[in-house]
Amino acid sequence: MSVTKLEIYTEPAAFTGVKDALSIVGYEFVTAELSMIPQVVN
Q1: How far apart are CA 41 and CA 5, in angstroms?
Q2: Between the CA of residue 34 and those of 9, 13, 30, what are the distances in Å?
Q3: 22 phi/psi in degrees, rounded to 5
Q4: Which pTM value belongs to this model?
Q5: Which of 4, 11, 19, 27 has the fewest CB atoms within 10 Å, i.e. is most exposed?
């Protein structure tokens, strides 16, 4: 059995669409969540 780990970055508004599209083509999710990634401003 092969396990592939994907970490996908997208705009929050696109999250559901991306998740649904991946589900349609056969991906299964252990977790699917939104996280805020801090950005450093100099």
Answers
A1: 30
A2: 9, 10, 14
A3: -70, -35
A4: 0.72
A5: 4
Q: Residues 3, 25, 35, 40: is their CA dihedral positive or negative?
A: positive
For residues 7 and 5, give the distance between their C-alpha atoms in angstroms, rounded to a whole number. Answer: 7
- Which pair of structure tokens corresponds to residue 39? 């950005």
Question: Pick from 41, 32, 40, 39: which is nearest to 12 by CA?
Answer: 32
Whose tokens are 């977790």? That residue is 31
Measured in whole angstroms, how far is the alpha carbon of residue 14 from the centre of its chain? 10
Query: What amino acid occupies position 23?
Result: S
